[in-house]
Amino acid sequence: MGFTISGHKIWTDEEDLVCRIFYPDYFAIRQILDTRSKKAIQTRCQKLGLVPPRQSWRWPARQQLRKLYPEARKEELCEVFPGVDWRKIQSAARYYGYRRKKKPYKITGIISLDQSRSRCYDIGWTMRDFDEEAGTKRYFQTRGYRSKYPNFRAISRSVRALGGSLEIRWDEQR
Description:
0% strand, 10 helices, 174 residues
C-alpha cells in the first residue's frame, strides 16, 4: 500500500535518485522532498551508501587505540583503522584521554647541557619548567643554548636546579 507497519511512507526510486544527485546538500534534498524529515533523509543517504560509515569506538577498538596511540606511527594507525581519517583517530584519542609519547630533547653536543636536558625529559619537565627552576629567564626556551658560545652560568644554574653538582674537567672538555 506504500506504507510501513509503523505508518512511515516507503521510499521510492525517484526519491532515492534525488538523494543520489543532491547528496551533500541536505537543504536542497529537504526542499525537493518536503514530506521527509531531515533525519529520515540522512538515514536514507546512509543506507544508500552515500555517507561514509562511522567508526565505532567500542571497547575492542578503544583498547587497540590505547595500546598503539602513544608510540605507533601515523601510517600504522591508519592501517589498523582502515577507512578512518587521521584527524578522526586523533580526536578519538583526545576524547578518551590518550596521548602520544613525548619525543626526547635534541642533542646539542655540549655534554653538561645534554645531560641536564635528558634528566629533564626523564622527570617530565618542559624547558619552561627548567628555566623557572634554574632562574635562567628564557635561556632554554628560546634556544639560547644554540649560540656559538654557550652560557655556562645558565648551565651551572640548571645543574644545581636538578640537584647535581658541576665538576668541570678541562681534559674532558678539550
